[in-house]
Design brief:
The chain has 346 residues and is of the alpha/beta class. 28% of the residues lie in helices and 28% in strands. Strands 3, 5, 6, 9, 10, 17 and 18 form a seven-stranded mixed sheet that branches. The chain has a six-stranded parallel sheet with strand order 13-12-11-14-15-16, sandwiched between helices. Strands 2-1-4 form a three-stranded antiparallel sheet, with no helix packed on it. Helix 4 packs parallel to helix 5. It starts with 9 loop residues before the first strand and ends with a strand. The chain binds zinc ion (2 copies). The site of one zinc ion has 6 residues, from loops.
Amino acid sequence: VRKLGEIYKNMKNSVYSFREKRFHLVDSLLPKIKSDEVLVRIKASALCGTDLHIMKGELMDKVYGKKNITLGHEWTGFVEKIGKKVNKKWLGKRVFGSPHIPCGKCKYCKIGKESLCDHQAIFGMTRPGAHAEYLLAPESTLFTLPDKIDFATGALLSDTVSTAYHAIKKIELKSRNKYLILGSGPVGLTIGVLLKILGQKNINILEKSPYRTGIAKKLLGANVFNEKNSLVLRRTIDVVFDTTGSEKALEIGFHSLVRGGQLIIIGIHNKPFMLDSLRLMYREIAIMGSFGYSHQEAAEFTKLFCQGKNSRELARVISHKFSISKVDQAYKMFSSHNCGKVVLIN
Ligand SMILES: [Zn+2]
Ligand SMILES: [Zn+2]
């Protein structure tokens, strides 16, 4: 067991091979730190649907390594070393990190819309990720992880909570709103958890996996529908959140909306989808994409989950924890959909 605060020359690193379609746990040299970066001793890194897309080779134009890659963009840990220009307050701090690294200079960064940055880098995609013992991270990606939130739950703040929170900020919360969340994977579930915490009551889910149907009922007390029985939802829903990337689900969501309803797209769709544009116009449906989050929003949701009750609710979104040496098993479990959030623990 390595001691905290002691820096070693090498690190455990889980490397995914695109050709072999499997992970190798290797001993890598510790990366050299730049003046605006910190070295984070990773304590937890979560698996994300985006990783499955990367592993299938769907995002190769953005991936830094064409043969191998260290995945992982949702992470927590301790800051063990800081570059020359980095604020000393970070040294030894518990942190969670943003998946996205904004440039800080473009027009979007300047107005606090960092997730729309023109030149953003992404951990575990455009540069090495957090499924390793250490991660090099620019200071701009760090957020303080409150003591009350454990490392595994904190890894949800990185991307799952932030994605859910950013999407919810796109709408006006009204107590009479009726919601439909397409998919109750980690992001869908977390949208439900957040809506509940924010006082919203009428939450419905569209889900086909029996396991995920079960957790949606248990965690959210939501009505869960599938393709076959979703017809009763027709023209009853005020806001639909799509987390599936499935055109079929999107169509059900679209037809479930009332006049003036909103459809927020968070899921990754691999190809363009068809929607009835005439209906969209007549019924004044608003469709909006949602991606990433701003630093301002990070401060807001961190505060929300500092309350013990809320962070315990969030922790229930995690169904499985694996040690990093079991990374293959973790991804097998995650891609089976018989799980909630899956987290790797160091
Ligand atoms: Zn993610
Ligand atoms: Zn930028």
